[in-house]
């Protein structure tokens, strides 16, 4: 069955996913699906003690994203209507593989696949790749209190995990178009012409 454009904007913490997704939503007049972040009750505890709170944090994200995508499929995707999201459900595994260990990681993998294997997947991914200094600057600029506790080493590892994950997705989902944006050189907020180039590329892909 033909499906309309399902665009996901991805990248590590601080890359500018929600900002770019919102700008494209306005520019292209496409509904936007935003992930729940600050509503997660385990975030503060997680950054204070990753080992202790990672399973609770990741399960909260997984269940909420599952519900969001299930509703989005009914409202838009299954009806061949375009939609843009500021995340790909696969990000759950990116984070869980890094933070969970042993039995908890195995249990999480099983639950992830049960919930997500039959969910619709994006056919276009905009991957914002940025270096550590850029991410730290943007995280500091937006001023979320709980993000002030992020260990730069964790963030650097996340950058590498995202590169690995995008390469894996390119193999796992060969029909998905992955567009990589150099977030360390491209500032689509400060420079309208750079955003216009991204928007034009997306327009070509969804025509």
Structure report:
- The protein has helices at residues 17-28, 43-48, 50-75, 91-99, 102-116, 132-142, 152-172, 192-206; strands at 6-10, 32-33, 83-85, 124-129, 177-182.
- Helix 3 packs antiparallel against helix 4.
- Strands 2-3-1-4-5 form a five-stranded parallel sheet, sandwiched between helices.
- It has one domain (6-206): Rossmann fold, CATH 3.40.50.300.
- With 207 residues, the chain is an alpha/beta fold.
- The chain is 56% helix and 11% strand.
- This is Deoxynucleoside kinase.
- Keywords: Kinase, Transferase.
- InterPro entries: DCK/DGK (IPR002624), Deoxyribonucleoside_kinase (IPR050566), DNK_dom (IPR031314), P-loop_NTPase (IPR027417).
Task: Give the gist of this structure.
With 207 residues, the chain is α/β, with parallel strands linked by helices. The protein is built from eight helices and five strands. Helix 3 runs antiparallel to helix 4, helix 4 packs antiparallel against helix 5 and helix 4 crosses helix 7.
């Amino acid at each position: 069955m033909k499906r309309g454009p399902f665009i996901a904007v991805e990248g590590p913490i601080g890359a500018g996913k929600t900002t770019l997704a919102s700008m494209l939503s306005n520019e292209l007049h496409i509904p936007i699906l935003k992930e729940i972040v600050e509503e997660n009750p385990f975030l503060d505890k997680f950054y204070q003690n990753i080992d202790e709170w990672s399973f609770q944090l990741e399960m909260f994200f997984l269940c909420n994203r599952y519900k969001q995508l299930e509703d989005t499929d009914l409202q838009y995707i299954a009806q061949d209507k375009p939609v843009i999201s500021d995340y790909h459900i696969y990000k759950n595994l990116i984070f869980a593989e890094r933070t969970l260990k042993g039995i908890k990681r195995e249990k999480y993998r099983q639950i992830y696949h049960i919930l997500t294997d039959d969910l619709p997947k994006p056919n276009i991914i905009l991957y914002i790749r940025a270096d550590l200094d850029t991410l730290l600057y943007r995280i500091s600029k937006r001023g979320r209190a709980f993000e002030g506790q992020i260990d730069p080493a964790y963030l650097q590892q996340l950058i590498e995990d995202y590169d690995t994950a995008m390469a894996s997705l390119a193999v796992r989902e060969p029909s998905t178009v992955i567009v990589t944006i150099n977030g360390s050189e491209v500032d689509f907020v400060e420079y309208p012409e750079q955003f216009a180039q991204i928007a034009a590329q997306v327009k070509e892909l969804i025509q």
